Amino acid sequence: MSARPRTLARVAAVQALYQAEQAGQSGETVIDQFVRHRIGDPPGTGGADEGRLPAADVPLFSRIVRTATMQQDVLDGMIAEALPESWPMARLDPVLRACLRAGGAELWMSDGPPAKVVINEYMDVAHGFFSGDEPRMINGMLDRLAHLLRPAEFSAAG
Questions:
Q1: From CA 121, how far away is CA 107, in angstroms rounded?
Q2: For an engineered disulfide with 104, which of 31, 32, 69, 75 has Cβ 3.0 to 4.6 Å away?
Q3: Does position 20 have pLDDT exceeding 90, yes or no?
Q4: Mean pLDDT of 18-25
């Protein structure tokens, strides 16, 4: 995975969004903490073996976290709308919520990779955190968000 800086940026973004929610920290605070302590490989650090993501794409990581935090109310509304009524946002596992927010944020970026690439990437990321049905749920939820946020990509595909 170390050869995939963009995937590592997405993993770091999910972790940072989880941390921000759990600790009540701002997006900028967790970006700063991750860049200083978890991303990059300063001399004397343990690298990926010690929870670091040395090869993560820092600009992509920062952009995902910033977009997710700045657009969180809108993204959360879209996610909540896609959930069954009996399953409110608060009931979602916090890591799953962070993954949906990160994926939603990347779909929000109209100049990002194609929606199908984003969805597949976050399914891969979810497999790193979950062994159950959560990756399939991420697939379905992000597909719904992609149709809302990037309808042209789907109408052109016909």
A1: 12
A2: 75
A3: yes
A4: 96
Instruction: Give the domain ranges of the chain.
Output: 5-155
**Alpha-carbon gap, residue 33 to 7, rounded angstroms:** 19
Token pair 């990756």: residue: 135
Domain 5-155 has CATH 1.10.940.10: yes
Look up residue 57 and give its two tokens. 């794409």
**Residue 51: CB partners within 8 Å, gap ≥ 6?**
38
Transcribe 80-124 into DSSP letters. Answer: HHHS-TTS-GGGS-HHHHHHHHHHHHHHH-TTSS-HHHHHHHHHH
What pLDDT is attached to residue 1? 45
List, in order, residues 6 or more apart from 39 with CB less than 8 Å away.
12, 52, 53, 54, 56, 58, 61
Q: Are 68 and 104 in contact (CB under 8 A)?
A: yes
* Cα–Cα distance for residue pair 38/73, rounded to 1 Å: 27
